Amino acid sequence: MADTFVAELRKTPLHARHRASNARMVPFAGWDMPVEYSGITAEHMAVRTRAGLFDVSHMGQIEVAGKNAAAAVDRLICSDASALSIGQAKYSGLLTPDGTFVDDVLVYRMAPFHFLFVANASNVKKDFAWITEQIKAVGDAAAVDSSTRYALLALQGPAAREVLQPLTGVDLSEIRPYWFANGEVANARATISRTGYSGEDGFEIFVPPNMADKVWQAVLESGRSADVIPCGLGARDTLRLEAAMRLYGNDIDESTSVLEAGLDWTVAWSKKEFIGRDRLVEQRDQGVARTLVGLEMMDRGIARHGYQVVRDARPVGVVTSGTQTPFLKKAIAMAYVPPELAAPGAEIDVDIRGRAAKARVVPLPFYKRKRT
Amino acid sequence: MAYPTDRKYTKDHEWIRVSGDTADVGITDYAQRQLGDVVYVDLPDVGRRIVAGESFGSIESVKAVSELFAPMSGEVVEVNPRLKDHPEAVNSEPYDSWMVKVRLSDPAAVESLLDAAAYEALVKE
What we know:
- The complex is a heterodimer.
- By secondary structure, chain A is α+β, with helices and mostly antiparallel strands.
- Chain A folds into 3 domains: 6-56 and 150-242, Gyrase A, domain 2 (2-Layer Sandwich); 60-148, Alpha-Beta Plaits (2-Layer Sandwich); 289-372, Elongation Factor Tu (Ef-tu), domain 3, CATH 2.40.30.110.
- Chain A is 19% helix and 32% strand.
- Chain A is built from 8 helices and 19 strands.
- In chain A, the strands form 4 sheets. Chain A has a 6-stranded mixed sheet, sandwiched between helices.
- In chain A, strand 15 and strand 16 (314-324) form a beta hairpin.
- The longest helix of chain A is centred in the middle third of the chain and has 12 residues, at 124-135.
- Chain A starts with 14 loop residues before the first helix and ends in a 10-residue tail after the last strand.
- Chain B is an alpha+beta fold.
- Chain B has one domain: CATH 2.40.50.100.
- Chain B is 19% helix and 35% strand.
- In chain B, a hairpin with a 2-residue loop joins strand 2 and strand 3 (22-27).
- Chain B is globular.
- The two termini of chain B are 14 Å apart.
- The relative contact order of chain B is 0.27.
- The chains are: A alpha+beta, B alpha+beta.
């Protein structure tokens, strides 16, 4: 199992902590990251029922600032950046002219003329080059890759607020979902965002890298009585899949459009211009050839990324993500299928290593938390 | 971690316990830890011939699917019924969770496999 490239992998500010805590480490997007601490199932259940703490410092940050920053960001993403308030965040697509994904990002409006993108680790370099190039046409806006300036922790789960609150003077009940506030956590300067990638309530906390370990320890200490545990990328993946949140590189990429991916809700059609708009309008009016759906396996077996979707022994689509979910205790998957097979209830087969296993189309998301 | 000395091991992290001309086959503690939470074990039917070094089934954890490789050749005479509903037993009791019982075509071939000490040295690398 020895990986000769380990030395070249990047390390987050919490790397030593993960190693010391005996987390199982794997290479991910060029980083040496914890895939699990106590086991994916236990970590998944902790987030659904209590809370779990994730190191997501591998995620990148790209900032766009300048007098025309809003116009620049509006050109780059399919959502309405100008409509964001200071302190508000939005999930959106950074699109190619074909309406497909350069990346999917969270866009934060930090100040009137200052936006911050949180980008996928594997895409940061590409995004930065793309953003830099595309905002030239707008002028009076500049982009900076500030990924190394932030460590990013995610505390996710129903107990997240009560665990985090004792560590900060910011009134967390005042931060609505997809909003954020600047303040401190465990005496570290922090941006606290009510966002996440788990389908639960929770917070993502941006802190200076040299404070990351202190904040990590403080959150776990504060969460001790609530049995909050550290979690790895494995549970992050099963959690996001239950919540049907798309994963770049699996469910979406430069070959899949926003509408095919079922992310129409991110598109601000009222915006006269953004990269990819013409193609998306075309798809909106004429329809798409395939669409992302949820599948639930009826036969035994788990559909995995890349497996073929089959109907009447003919390949009609492809599975993009799949797992056995610890919380719902079912084998679920997302797949691209033709629109005529996309209605919930439709039955198809998945080719599981040569065996046709029956599956049924179900509505997304698979899991939706009860809002209080 | 102590590896039971009543059986032999492969480089692919299976164990095999030979008794006369039949043997139980499972995966090692090291293997189950690498896999993480096991959720499904896909095993051959009774009567299937399996061939040393070739895949005879697969094991799925939450994360991924892995092939199971036959340590020795023979015919499947029994499949562990418990694993159908309790695949997690592979994690909790890897050395009691045999997957298949095989009637060996060449019981003497067991000598070419790793003993506990050699296997332990292998996974320590």
